[in-house]
Structures are given as structure tokens and as C-alpha cells.
Design a protein that fits this description.
Layout (H helix, E strand, L loop, with lengths): L1 E5 L3 H12 L3 E5 L3 H8 L4 E3 L2 H7 L5 E4 L5 H10 L8 E4 L5 H11 L5 E8 L4 H4 L2 E6 L1 H6 L1 H7 L5 E5 L3 H29 L8 H8 L8 H12 L15 H11 L5 H13 L5 H14 L25
Helix pairs in contact: 9-12, 9-13, 9-14, 10-11, 11-14, 12-13
Length: 318
């Protein structure tokens, strides 16, 4: 199939590469031309404006957004709805709020443009192992796009979740669970470190051990092992932990539906607290985010956003 990929960041670039490896035809656009030139060298066709991208796609067109949630997605959809035609398909594969998906679907419906929301998990490792895809929207359009999903995902790695918004809703809850799991690992390693045994423990070896048949084994522990092997005490990074929105949305959903979610809520608040003081458990969280998603971390001793000399509130990617 032919697909127009908009957004060649950490996720979008590798997704384009995986699609090319899966013998799909990719037309790629990014606001930074150098990223487009990079993927063109690997077999994609480049586009340097949205108009050019749409013009290079055969009808009915398929356009996939991999952009930061919020204004960037809104702005691109606003422009694309005037460029696309009836029966074209627009997919939002970023981490958008599911309520935004419902709005986007309603906005595109009068134009006859189909809309799917796809929650994507896999981070910077997805190129090699595949991406887990959670999909919402019209089931007929889902079926039409299965060759794309199969190219991106590992075996059994994609699922139709329901009507518009369902894909990003399931991904939202997935990320809320991720928050809780990461916090539990962080707290556990801090308890180990604070004990009388801590100075003699090899945390990379402990993480490796726990992945050999124990009930807490997971990919996150593999990443923890990798982080500890690079820096056994995580002394080179700060315990400053950002959140990208999904944890907040999950807690809000729990409140709206009167579901008790104390672990996820506490893990979100832990991230808020991490921006005020440094703990070993927060260093574990920061290291895990860097390992699975390539997220930026603060170096040890670096000024924190929101502190004097530390710039704005948000941690910028470096």
C-alpha cells in the first residue's frame, strides 16, 4: 500500500523505515527538511509541503500523522481537510486524547474523510521488534488498512478496539499502567539501595535475575538492567521525570467513572514530586523513560525547569 507519513520524530522515522522494510510505499513529510532527506535515502519519496505530500499520493489517499498531541495535530488536520478528498483516510498515530479523536472524526465527517485513531506503543525499539497498535474508528476502514498494521506490528500486535476514540483510550490506560509499573520498580530498587545490603548489590544483576522466571519479569526490567549496566548507580542523571499527558488523562477517567485507581494516581503524583527533589527511585523512572522511548533526561546537577536559571516548566528534548 501507499502511505503518507507526516512527522519523522523518534517514532515516526522508525515507523517509516519499518513500513519500507515491509514493502510498503512511503511518501514522507517533516517540517525539518533534513529528516525528509534522510528517509529518502532509504527508499521513501520526499515531500516538503503538505500540498506536495497529498499530490504524490494516489486516491483514495492514506495519510498518517505522528505528531505531538494537541495543537500540532489540530493544525495539521485543519490544513489537511482542505487538501484531501472524499474517501481519503487520515490516521492519528500519536498520543492524542481520545476526546480529541471524537472531535476530529466529527470535523472530518462532512468532508467524507475517514478517520482512525491508533495508539502506538514500542518506543525506539519498535523498528526491530514491531509496534503494538490499538485501533479505533470505522471497522471497514480498519480492515482496509490491515496490510499497513501487519507491516508495523509483530505477530498478534494489533487490535481493533472499537469506534472512534477507542484506540487512543486503550493506549491511554496502557500508559497509566506503565506509570504504576515503573514506580513500583523504582521504589523497589530504592529500598534495596537504602538497605545495609545495598552497597554490595549489583542492581543490573538483580534486574537480570528477576527476569529469569520470576513473577515480576518484564521488558521494563530488561531496560532497567541495561540502564544499570551503563551507570550502576544512575549517578549521571537527575531524577526529574516528565509526564506526557496520558497518566493525567487516565486518572481523570478514573475520577469520571468512579473507579479506584490509587496506584496510577500515586505514580502520577510521584512524577510531579520528582521535579522538586531527587531520589533514587525517580532516577530509575528517568532511566527507564530514556531506555524505552529515547526521552530526554536531565544530567546530574543540571538546572531543573522552573528553578532559578533552569528555564521553563517543561523539559526540552536535547
Amino acid at each position: 500500500m501507499q502511505i503518507g507519513m507526516i512527522g519523522l520524530g523518534r517514532m515516526g522515522m522508525n515507523m517509516a523505515r519499518r513500513l519500507l522494510r515491509g514493502r510498503q510505499s512511503v511518501v514522507a513529510y517533516n517540517r525539518t527538511p533534513d529528516r525528509v532527506k534522510e528517509i529518502v535515502k532509504e527508499g521513501a519519496r520526499g515531500a516538503y509541503t503538505l500540498e506536495e505530500l497529498v499530490g504524490k499520493l494516489k486516491r483514495p489517499r492514506l495519510v498518517w500523522l505522528m505528531l505531538p498531541a494537541g495543537k500540532a495535530v489540530d493544525d495539521h488536520i485543519e490544513e489537511l481537510k482542505d487538501l484531501l478528498d472524499e474517501e481519503d483516510i487520515l490516521v492519528d498515530g500519536g498520543n492524542s486524547y481520545y476526546q480529541d479523536d471524537i472531535r476530529h472524526g466529527q470535523e472530518l465527517n462532512p468532508f467524507g474523510i475517514h478517520y482512525l485513531d491508533v495508539g502506538v506503543s514500542g518506543g525506539i525499539w519498535g523498528l526491530e521488534v514491531g509496534y503494538c497498535l490499538m485501533i479505533g474508528g470505522d471497522p471497514k476502514i480498519y480492515t482496509r488498512l490491515e496490510p499497513i498494521f501487519k507491516a508495523l506490528a509483530p505477530k498478534d500486535g494489533y487490535l481493533y478496539c472499537g469506534e472512534t476514540g477507542a484506540g487512543h483510550f486503550v493506549k491511554m490506560v496502557h500508559n497509566g499502567i506503565e506509570y504504576g509499573m515503573m514506580s513500583a520498580y523504582g521504589e523497589g530498587f530504592e529500598i534495596l539501595k537504602a538497605s545495609s545490603y545495598g552497597k554490595n548489590l549489583d542492581f543490573a544483576a538483580v534486574a537480570h535475575l528477576w527476569n529469569q522466571g520470576s513473577v515480576v519479569r518484564s521488558w521494563l526490567l530488561e531496560l532497567a538492567e541495561a540502564a544499570f549496566r551503563k551507570d550502576k548507580d544512575l549517578s549521571t542523571i537527575s531524577g526529574y521525570v516528565e509526564d506526557s499527558g496520558e497518566g493525567r488523562w487516565t486518572v481523570k477517567q478514573a475520577i469520571d467513572t468512579a473507579v479506584a485507581a490509587p496506584v496510577i494516581a500515586a505514580s502520577l503524583f510521584q512524577r510531579f514530586r520528582s521535579r522538586k527533589r531527587d531520589t533514587f527511585s525517580d532516577k530509575v523512572l528517568a532511566a527507564l523513560r530514556q531506555e524505552f522511548g529515547g526521552h530526554a533526561v536531565l544530567k546530574a546537577g543540571e538546572k531543573r525547569p522552573g528553578t532559578p536559571g533552569g528555564g521553563g516548566r517543561r523539559l526540552k528534548n536535547r
